[in-house]
Amino acid sequence: MKITALVASFNRLNSTVRAVERLVAQNGSDCSIEVVLVDDGSTDGTPEAIRRLFPDVTLVETPGDYYWAASMRLAEDTALESKPDALLWLNDDVQLDADAISRLLDCHKLMPDSVIGGAMRDPHTGATTYTGYVRPGRHPMRATPVEPLHVWQRVDLLNGNLVLVPSSARHRIGPIDGGFAHAYADFDYCARARAAGVPVILAPGTFGTCPRNPPRRRPESRAEAVRELHHPKARPPASQVRYLSRHGGPEWPLYFLAPYVRLLLTGDPSGGRPR
């Protein structure tokens, strides 16, 4: 099975090198792995290190305004030129277990036309950090995390840290939407998969370590809260509209306005909920 991994990097030299190192070490008799890495304007020497240490990696450099979604779409477009059997999304801060890809492929053999995600754990505590989610109601941005079990589980959404997309599923879903500023693209892809009748699966167990991103500091003023809300890595309006109008049903404008109402009433768009 020919797999092409898609990696987006930005100023995480050490973790990016370790992530690629762990990935390429998993080439084996059951698969061959190629890597397309899009570096979005790193200034810490990441592109130079990738060229030196991994000459077989296809490296694409962008000017620093692509963020995750557009970088992954560019990586996908580049990867498809070699016609792989499957695409593998991999975050540059993931450290894969030695058998991660073989276990992911074991799940793929059971559900060959599915989008399959692998959960991550904290490197120190072992607690699950990134995983699959189920939506408890109609609101498309409210989701409950699912603990990985010893068997695969159907879920509604997946974090994009480690996701296998076979070509049969990709043809039905379409490409990663690079029109999002940064976030939302992984959840959007899973929602589109389910709408197209493609199962979204959380594979058994965890597949590596990936520390959770530190929580953003609560804003001290409404002006700061507005800037925070509009940051490309937070909830910029264009990305919210893109996601909510696609997956929120006829009431999506209410979902869009809710953070702004909370901001006016409390000064905090999260309404005091942890982020």
Question: Which features does this protein show?
Answer:
single chain, 275 residues, alpha/beta, Spore Coat Polysaccharide Biosynthesis Protein SpsA, Chain A, 2 domains, ten-stranded mixed sheet, three-stranded antiparallel sheet, 9 helices, disordered C terminus
How is this structure best summarized?
With 275 residues, this protein is α/β, with parallel strands linked by helices. The protein is 35% helix and 24% strand.
Question: Mind explaining what this structure looks like?
Answer:
The chain is α/β, with parallel strands linked by helices and 275 residues long. The protein has two domains: 2-209, Spore Coat Polysaccharide Biosynthesis Protein SpsA, Chain A (Alpha-Beta Complex); 222-266, no CATH class. The chain is 35% helix and 24% strand. Strands 1, 2, 3, 4, 5, 6, 7, 10, 12 and 13 form a ten-stranded mixed β-sheet that branches. The chain has a three-stranded antiparallel β-sheet with strand order 9-8-11. β2, α2 and β3 (58-62) form a beta-alpha-beta unit. α1 runs parallel beside α2 and α8 crosses α9 (252-266). The chain is globular and about 60 Å long. The N and C termini lie far apart (39 Å). Residues 271-275 have low confidence and may be disordered.
